[in-house]
Amino acid sequence: MFDAYEVIPAVDMQDGEVVQLVQGERGTEKRYGDPAEAARRWIAAGARTLHLVDLDGAFEGERRNAPAVEAVLGAVGDEVAVQLGGGIRTADEAISLLDRGVDRVILGTAAVETPEIVREISDEHENSVMVSLDAKDGEVVVSGWTEGTGLDPAEAAARYEELGAGAILFTNVDVEGQLEGVKTDPVERIAEAVSIPVVASGGVASVEDVRVLKEAGASAVVVGTALYEGRFSLEEATDAVA
Predict the structure, then answer these.
(1) Which of 34, 97, 124, 128 is 20 to 30 A removed from 88 (C-alpha atoms)?
(2) Considering the domain boundaries, does residue 119 fall inside one?
(3) Going residue by residue through the chain (242 aa), what tens digit of pLDDT does each one get?
(4) Which of 54, 56, 103, 134 is labelled catalytic?
(5) Cα separation of 108 and 238, whole Å?
(6) Would you call 56 a catalytic residue per the annotation?
(7) Would residue 1 count as lying in a domain?
(8) Rounded to whole angstroms, how far apart are CA atoms 122 and 21?
(9) Does the annotation mark 12 as catalytic?
């Protein structure tokens, strides 16, 4: 899935626009324009993967930014992978998106509520499911980071690997969007618990954060606010871990 460590730009969408939230809280968003334009910008900067999230879908359980997703898919060439999450609740919907050209679907709430959905989709599209484990205070949370589950991220990751997940996306909500740096301990725990790729997200503020997450065992890192705010460029981050 990842031939080498990747720095993946986030294209989080709300009301048809790119936004970034602080700790996943609605009302904290800062807007960054058109998703397709953002996608083209990151591709021009050398992105090999784009990370798309329908935030309205994540909060409300129904995909609301489908037109924006379609526009991004239309702007992306065959050389750039697209992983999409937010509001994907059924296997049929996930398979339809994969058939449409999405490379990986990201399942959070659906995977927690119905774990077998991971196997069902994987049987149709091998290594296409990225299970999103978003953690707040060391507990997996769902429904747009608003509901606790009682699940330990590392234990949950191992279970989803058994069910056929192709990768784990771990977001540390405690530091998400704050530009105050990352915490590597939970990433290390998850990377040690599974053999599939672990993609880290949350808190990246510097090129050094990108580097230490690689050392912690991540196969890739998703970066949002730091890139949009110009803390560093995608090229600088990529060169630092080459």
Answers:
(1) 34
(2) yes
(3) 899 999 999 999 999 999 987 665 676 788 999 999 999 999 999 999 999 999 887 777 678 888 999 999 999 978 899 999 998 999 999 999 999 999 999 999 899 999 999 999 999 999 999 999 989 888 998 876 678 889 999 999 999 999 999 999 999 887 776 677 899 999 999 999 999 999 999 889 999 999 999 999 999 999 999 999 999 999 999 999 99
(4) 134
(5) 27
(6) no
(7) no
(8) 31
(9) yes
